[in-house]
Amino acid sequence: MATAGLPEPTSPPLDPAGKTVMGASDIARCLRRMAHEILERNKGADDLVVLGIPSRGVELGNRLAAMLEQVEGRGIPAGSLDITMHRDDLRHQPTRAPMRTHIPPPGIDGKVVILVDDVLYSGRTIRAALDALADLGRPRAVRLAVLVDRGHRELPIRADHVGKNLPTSVSEKVQVRLVGHDGIDDVVNIAGGESR
Ligand SMILES: O=P(O)(O)OC[C@H]1O[C@H](OP(=O)(O)OP(=O)(O)O)[C@H](O)[C@@H]1O
Ligand SMILES: O=c1cc[nH]c(=O)[nH]1
């Protein structure tokens, strides 16, 4: 069931100054561990719904759901949650195109929603995701799984499941690339990316 539609592939430009901090096997290992953590915390897969945040969170969410399925031997609903209209910088960047929200058949009421994203930084994307979710139903619980937590939170938000804690400076940028979007799985830390 882990088959939420992926958005159109978009490949960020390669930055030769980037330092590779995770490779494909690291990413796979982190996702596998996170899947086990989620199952342990949830005492199994009952009521789990995995929702990835576009764009790369959707591919990661689908992979995580596939790993949950492998371990549990049953289908795990997976989908995507677009946050565009809930961003707090819409007034500054009004031209962002909305992406796909796909809530799988059981819906989210009473479920344990696992939000999935590639990078956690200021926390503003996740704040928007919680708003977007509230428009769609009332989960029993919402948990957050991110591949990379690079710190520098601006809001009181933390992840429940983290692939890798990556200390960074504000001037750096962490770029997650995934096969479905970029043709390669890795995480690159780019100096002087000025991400804020
Ligand atoms: O914690 P935050 O400060 O909100 O940063 C994290 C978000 O930034 C990136 O998304 P971006 O908005 O760059 O779009 P993308 O997913 O298309 O890369 C990343 O994919 C996270 O969703
Ligand atoms: O470094 C960053 C900051 C926000 N979002 C990213 O994807 N990377």
From TrEMBL:
<dbReference type="GO" id="GO:0006355">
    <property type="term" value="P:regulation of DNA-templated transcription"/>
</dbReference>
<keyword id="KW-0808">Transferase</keyword>
<comment type="function">
    <text>Also displays a weak uracil phosphoribosyltransferase activity which is not physiologically significant.</text>
</comment>
<keyword id="KW-0805">Transcription regulation</keyword>
<keyword id="KW-0804">Transcription</keyword>
<feature type="region of interest" description="Disordered">
    <location>
        <begin position="1"/>
        <end position="20"/>
    </location>
</feature>
<dbReference type="Pfam" id="PF00156">
    <property type="entry name" value="Pribosyltran"/>
</dbReference>
<comment type="similarity">
    <text>Belongs to the purine/pyrimidine phosphoribosyltransferase family. PyrR subfamily.</text>
</comment>
<feature type="domain" description="Phosphoribosyltransferase">
    <location>
        <begin position="28"/>
        <end position="163"/>
    </location>
</feature>
<feature type="short sequence motif" description="PRPP-binding">
    <location>
        <begin position="113"/>
        <end position="125"/>
    </location>
</feature>
<keyword id="KW-0328">Glycosyltransferase</keyword>
<dbReference type="GO" id="GO:0004845">
    <property type="term" value="F:uracil phosphoribosyltransferase activity"/>
</dbReference>
<dbReference type="InterPro" id="IPR023050">
    <property type="entry name" value="PyrR"/>
</dbReference>
<dbReference type="InterPro" id="IPR050137">
    <property type="entry name" value="PyrR_bifunctional"/>
</dbReference>
<comment type="function">
    <text>Regulates the transcription of the pyrimidine nucleotide (pyr) operon in response to exogenous pyrimidines.</text>
</comment>
<dbReference type="InterPro" id="IPR029057">
    <property type="entry name" value="PRTase-like"/>
</dbReference>
<protein>
    <recommendedName>
        <fullName>Bifunctional protein PyrR</fullName>
        <ecNumber>2.4.2.9</ecNumber>
    </recommendedName>
</protein>
<dbReference type="InterPro" id="IPR000836">
    <property type="entry name" value="PRTase_dom"/>
</dbReference>
